[in-house]
């Protein structure tokens, strides 16, 4: 009886664990105030600006799952591309771009 109860409890809890991580997909307000859309493309996710001075410009590509992603991110003002990473936490996305893995700049985006 105890084993059956434990199995039922485990099965009930599984969907909660599987859905705990927020997806990176969606619309995000960037630090500059523009809206960036993150959507599936190829085997990962593409980041495209939807509003602002550089609307329509693809500024990144990431791979990953759950809360952690990595790839590349382009500064739309300078057209320089950096190795990048993103971490999703609720309605926040912490984006980080680095040169030579030592010179890094971070900003937080907010889910819309």
Count the beta strands.
Answer: 8
Strand order of the largest sheet: 1-2-3-4-5-6-7-8
How would the global form be characterised?
A: globular
The CATH class is Mainly Beta
What is the terminal-to-terminal distance?
A: 47 Å
Name of the CATH architecture: Beta Barrel
> Low-confidence runs (pLDDT<50, min 5 residues)?
1-20
What is the averaged pLDDT score? 84
- What structural class is derived from the secondary structure elements? alpha+beta
User: What integer value in Å does the Rg equal?
Assistant: 18 Å
Number of helices: 1
Order of helices and strands, N to C?
HEEEEEEEE
Major beta-sheet overview = 8 strands, antiparallel, barrel
CATH topology: Lipocalin
Number of domains: 1
Portion in helices: 10-25%
**What share of the residues does DSSP label as strand, in percent?**
over 45%
Describe the secondary structure blueprint for this structure:
Layout: H1 2-18, E1 26-29, E2 35-41, E3 44-49, E4 58-65, E5 68-75, E6 80-89, E7 92-99, E8 103-111
Antiparallel strand pairs: 1-2, 1-8, 2-3, 3-4, 4-5, 5-6, 6-7, 7-8
Protein name: DUF2147 domain-containing protein
Organism: Shinella sumterensis
Pfam families: DUF2147
